[in-house]
Amino acid sequence: MKKLVFLTNDDGYQSKGLLAIRQELLKAGYEVITVTPDRNMSGASHSLTFTRPLKIVELEKNFYYIADGTPADCVHLGLNIILNGRKPDLLVSGINTGPNIGNDVFYSGTVGAAREGTLFDIPSVAFSVGSSKNPNYQEIAQVAMKIINVVILQGLPKGVFLNVNIPTIPKNQIKGFLLTKQGRSAYKEEIVKYLSPSKEEYYWIGGEEALLEECQPGTDYTAIKEGFVSITPIKLDLTDYQAIDELDKKDFLSEIMRI
């Protein structure tokens, strides 16, 4: 029986990265169910839509988009409605049109979709490119397939998903694969102010694709900069257990009760 892969992204159903990895998955013999937003939903993080109804639109067999939906909506509706509870062997999110390294993991819809899949106990991987400048998505998808095939074979630890960034260099120049830790920051923050004809002020939040972090060993940023594929395991449990012990030693709760 064919292995079932659930494919989603945050860039919409026309994304070149999505179409490239979908083609490679089908070529490899996987059954692929694709459910995406209807447009670019970058920055949607792990948000679910509770304030309006959502519509599922079928583009072709096994290929759907969610009108006005987030990446996490796509996973939620795809698993519960389209697949009707049938559990995929793997969830793939991406390939994102830019990097998701450092603090990006808190904002990224690509990462949010993988996190949502992990909440459903599905092995999940988020794929992104190291730069949005002229990526060769076909080659990047071929590199991603190496990781996909191993995860299908071995699975992942419970409550853990992978955030993968692939450098935008020729495939034969990639130095290898590294297990990395999350870096600190990814972009130079930028807020642009606009003035409407009626003199109302508007703001556009963005940022240059200018990596700021120093080359700390073992981070996603450093791996990409040095020509390696970065594979960062991320867990659902965000609890800082060391901080619990440290706060307890400082009688943190006793001080709260005393004040």
Quick rundown:
Its cofactor is Mg(2+); a divalent metal cation. By secondary structure, this protein is α/β, with parallel strands linked by helices.
CATH class equals Alpha Beta
Q: Which series of helices and strands comes N to C?
A: EHEEEHEHHEHEEEEHEHH
Distance between the termini: 63 Å
The number of distinct β-strands equals 11
Tally of contiguous helical segments: 8
Structural shape: globular
What is the name of the CATH architecture?
A: 3-Layer(aba) Sandwich
- Give the class from helix and strand content and strand pairing: alpha/beta
The fraction of residues in strands falls at 25-35%
**Number of discrete domains:** 1
Q: What is the CATH fold-level name?
A: Stationary-phase Survival Protein Sure Homolog, Chain: A
Major beta sheet, strand line-up? 3-4-2-1-5-6-7-11-8
Helix share of residues? 25-40%
